[in-house]
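Quick question, first post here. What does this chain look like in 3D?
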Amino acid sequence: QVQLVESGGGLVQAGASLRLSCAISGYTFGMYTMDWFRQAPGKERELVARFWRNTDTTNYADFVKGRFTISTDTAKNTLYLQMNSLKPDDTAVYLCHTFNGGGIEYWGQGIQVTVSS
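> Answer (accepted):
Ran it through. Tokens below.
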């Protein structure tokens, strides 16, 4: 079992920055990816950024490239998402997600990010 707990969300004005954190605990052996997704009201859940645990490489959705940065701590037990130049369209619930080769995935409970214009 893996537990994911997000923190760092809140209400900010457009142009501001926030850093989300996801504390990961439990059995992490074999974990392939550590991701941030988001879901806005009435919209489908979408991938924001991905960290490949074995290669330390990253992928970003086009709509956040150049503004958001995904990273981890040295032990890869905490996943971060640094969000700069926030826009009202970034308003959503942000969810931490992990996936391993056995097809097993875990989700955090999600955290609200609201960007006012």
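The CA atoms of residues 19 and 82 lie 4 Å apart.
The radius of gyration is 14 Å.
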